[in-house]
UniProtKB/TrEMBL annotation:
GO cellular component entries: cytoplasmic side of plasma membrane; cytosol
Name of the molecule in the record: CO dehydrogenase maturation factor
Superkingdom to which the source organism belongs: Bacteria
Xref: InterPro entries: CobQ/CobB/MinD/ParA_Nub-bd_dom, P-loop_NTPase, ParA/MinD_ATPase
GO biological process, any: negative regulation of cell division
Domain CobQ/CobB/MinD/ParA nucleotide binding: 7-236
Molecular function in Gene Ontology: ATP binding; ATP hydrolysis activity
Source organism per UniProt: Streptosporangium album
């Protein structure tokens, strides 16, 4: 299952991504946490020292593309592969339970179990539709080639910005948690996201954060309605983690820990919709090809789409 944490700057995306990844890893399943935000802080939040961070995916796009395209005859070279280029027959697919060059080369261990992958730092200039070298594109390629199952988790700490809408990254998840503080700005980002996501059947749930009391919950409830899944309150334990004083999950207030359990349960309850996933991969690839990618690569990238390729776990059909 793949989940993104999005929200306004400072709302708590990184904090909740890290807590959720640690909590989920503790339940036993493999967890990959990916830092795809402009400000790269997820490593720190997962207790990884600066010098133990993994190699940044965004700085090795060619290596990643070279691996993923495998011997897919529709992709002429790594240079012709853009962030939306979908897998086809011959592409290398990724699995969380099996070693491969991408996980071996770009994932680092963290103290509480999740593996960490990072895009590496990027700037506003790296964002935008016409960005061939988009660092976040590495995450999109990863998710497009990943075949994940129930009980396996990818948690992405991400900006809620226009880039993920333009490229289709926001459609690559089974669920998106929108982190909202109980403020007008916090719920404003929610409305934008919801309006965009609604056209694409993208499931979104709101996680209230830094809530101080019943008025805050009431405010969120009023503006977000039934999309409000759960709230985490403003937490002394989280503040202490931020200050580097202590970091055990067991220090978390019981109601905040229970809220993490609600998030996991909600994610586990999502139906994986591989047909939607495949349809939208194609849809956004065609959109990008027309908007800029054909021009950037000098090829007609619509030819990269393999109509016979089936997204998701493929069943081997037995004869007779
Ligand atoms: N429930 C909470 N209780 C107390 N402090 C919190 C809580 N959630 C987040 N914080 C604090 O709020 C600050 C911002 O959180 P965080 O860095 O996770 O936000 P972000 O959305 O990832 O921000 P950015 O947009 O800068 O990446 C941090 O100092 C964090 O420790
Ligand atoms: Mg952050």
């Amino acid at each position: 299952m793949r989940v993104a944490f999005v929200g306004k700057g400072g709302s708590g995306k990184t904090t909740l991504s890290a807590l959720f990844a640690r909590y989920t890893a503790r339940q036993g399943g493999p967890v990959v946490a990916i830092d795809a935000d402009i400000n790269q802080h997820l490593g720190m939040a997962l207790g990884v020292e600066e010098d133990a961070l993994p190699r940044p995916m965004g700085a090795h796009l060619t290596e990643i593309k070279e691996y993923l395209r495998g011997d897919n005859p529709r992709i002429s070279s790594a240079a012709a592969m853009v962030k939306t280029t979908p897998p086809g027959r011959g592409s290398r697919l990724l699995r969380l339970e099996e070693p491969d060059a991408i996980h071996a080369g770009f994932a680092a261990a963290t103290p509480d179990g999740p593996k960490l992958m990072v895009t590496g730092p990027f700037s506003e200039d790296d964002l935008g539709v016409a960005c061939y070298h988009s660092k976040v594109g590495a995450v999109e390629l990863y998710l497009n080639h990943l075949v994940d199952h129930a009980g396996e988790y990818v948690v992405v700490d991400m900006t809620a910005g226009a880039d993920s809408f333009a490229s289709g990254l926001f459609t690559r998840f089974d669920l998106t948690f929108l982190v909202a503080e109980p403020t007008r700005q916090g719920v404003g980002v929610y409305r934008q996201y919801r309006d965009y996501a609604a056209d694409y059947d993208v499931p979104v749930a709101v996680v209230g954060n830094k809530v101080h009391g019943p008025e805050d919950v009431e405010f969120l409830r009023e503006h977000v309605g039934d999309d409000l899944l759960v709230c985490l309150r403003h937490s002394a334990a989280i503040r202490a983690m931020e200050q580097g004083r202590r970091s055990g999950l067991e220090e978390l207030e019981p109601d905040n820990a229970a809220a993490l359990g609600v998030l996991l349960k909600h994610l586990d309850a999502q139906e994986k919709d591989w047909p939607r996933f495949g349809r939208q991969a194609v849809q956004f690839h065609l959109k990008n090809a027309g908007a800029w990618a054909n021009r950037a690569t000098g090829e007609d990238l619509s030819a990269q789409i393999d109509p016979e390729f089936v997204f998701g776990p493929t069943r081997v059909s037995l004869p007779g």
